[in-house]
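Standup notes
- HV: blocked on the assembly model, inputs below
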Amino acid sequence: MTPAKASSRKTSFSPMIHSYLRMDERFPHVWCPGCGIGIVFGALIHAVHELKIPKKKLLLASGIGCTSRMPGYLDADTFHVLHGRALAAATGVKLARPDMEVVVVGGDGDMLAIGGNHFIHTARRNIGMTCIVLNNYNYAMTGGQQSPTTPRDMFATTAPYGAIDDPVDACLLASGAGAAFVARTTTYNFVQLKRLIKTALSRKGFRLLEVVAQCPTIFGRLNRIPTPKDLVTWIKAHTVTLEAAKKMDAKELEDKVVTGVFVDREVEEYSERYARLVKKVRNAH
Amino acid sequence: MKTIAKTGNEAMAYAMKQINPDVVAAYPITPATEIVQIFSNYVADGEVDTEFVAVESEHSALSACVGASLAGGRVMTSTASQGLALMHEILYIAAGNRLPIVIALVNRSLSAPINIHCDHSDTMGSREAGWMQLYCANSQEAYDSLIIALKVAEQTAVPAIVSTDAFIISHAMERLEVLEDEEVQRFIGEYKPRFSALDLENPKTFGPLDLQDYFFEHKRAQIDDFSKVLGTYNKVAQEYAELSGRYYPALEEYKTDDADVAIFTAGSTADTAKEVVDGLREQGRKMGLVRMRMWRPLPVEEIKAALGKFKAVAVMDRSDTMADFGGPVFLETRGILYDAKKKPLLTDYVYGLGGRNIDISDILRVYDEIEQVVKQGKIDKLITYLGVRGEE
């Protein structure tokens, strides 16, 4: 594969987006046509740009999976660590450099299965970082195995008769663990997506944003919704807002994805509490 | 016996189907995902009686295997690279509890930086875990080795890792001869565990606290059992040869009888090196190849006898010890040869890390250089990093 030169290519992307990407060094990217990751990545860049977060203050970390390839393309301080361990590694960064704006991205498999333990405890501590879980309902990079979020009765390569497990709800999990900010949207709602990333970036403590995203190549094909347009439309059709959900009963909500802000509260950020403790102990000696 | 076309991963999945284990617990990881992926189809289609458990990490995968094996089941899994690294502590639990679990593994580099291609750093990093290790040169061997390894593991109560090279073997289609399902079943027989947690008449405890009083004796007993693996392997490999017509020694020699020099290497590179040896012999250059197949336990006497014949040997290591002393095969071979009556001049070539291609010209160069060592009677460069930019 020869990396395409950004400058030699006619493109409709804005120069602003390009200025955040390693176009010459790392493109073309690995994602499939129609994948939802680009939409989330674009929204993240727009949010960072609009909030005027300097590149030097931005740290993007990830584990393993399709979504976790994002840090390779962002022209900022980024790292790509072990499967499921991005939140643990990012915790180290935030404690060492509380001034950094730490963002962690990962898929449902990375964050909620192998990294599920770190997810709970990072939320519990309320350490200052924005965690974006891109939920495409399967392990896409390894070929579409059932993940912790695969909905009941939907197909995965390891669930040829449909999933029999109940899926985990990332937002409920983070809320239960005590996260300061918990919200969900989909790739269909780009405006809301960008707005929620901006809100998350401006809050303190642990901020979870779950984004339901399309994986047409693997999940879509396995579930007979193989085109990006149809899959995004399918996601939209299964989405209800938090306000609308309040008027619906359990039966009506059974196969629905509820979007909106579930938790938004003020907390004391962990690295500040930690710094205060360090100061107190040092002064005591 | 029938002839089919399969990739390394398909061949291993097919062997697993014919073995028909009681439990398979696994987690996806490139490039080994396919093995259990294909196997899960056999489960879904009712072609095996296996309980298939899709877990949330490799740590859990091998833990589930430990539980199933303790319960007396015939148990297998599959992984690669970081997956094996995440299984690391459970490797010791399985071996220490004498659970003959078999892993169908694809050798892939360890992160960082992240890489999905072949080297042997993953299994070489688990050498001390108490697992038998077999490195395969092609898909046929991967298929055969899983069946052999399962039988040896169950007879010795020592778990086993059978590995292929990432993508080079795992994803390449090859011609393959396979046994009938019944032949495999007859060969491996029924698994009768020494102890089972589900023996309700005779309840047992596994893995309890064992301190200064008895831990050492238990470890010594485990080491003693491990020392029986090679003998059992030789017997089982012979039985398998009688069944299949294919014999796999722990250490393979290729055109070594009249050779002055040899390469000592493993995996798919050994098959490439055989081509090189054939070409050299057409030119009248008498050079041989010794292939490392079993690296745990070490076939110590076999290595001494095989390598002792040469004036010089180049070890080709597909991983590094980070001991500032070359690769693990080199380091251990040097140790083995220390008290050999006859020993060759020994050099090391660390090659192919992260899937860096190794082709015929690279191997030819190693033969040329080792020939030079014989001519000079001394080694100029003990450890070479083959084909690294900025190095040479």
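- HV (later): unblocked. DSSP finds 13 helices and ten strands in chain A. The interface with chain B takes residues 64, 80-84, 113-114, 116, 139, 141-143, 145-146, 148, 157-161 of chain A (CB under 8 Å).
- Next: hand off to the docking folks.
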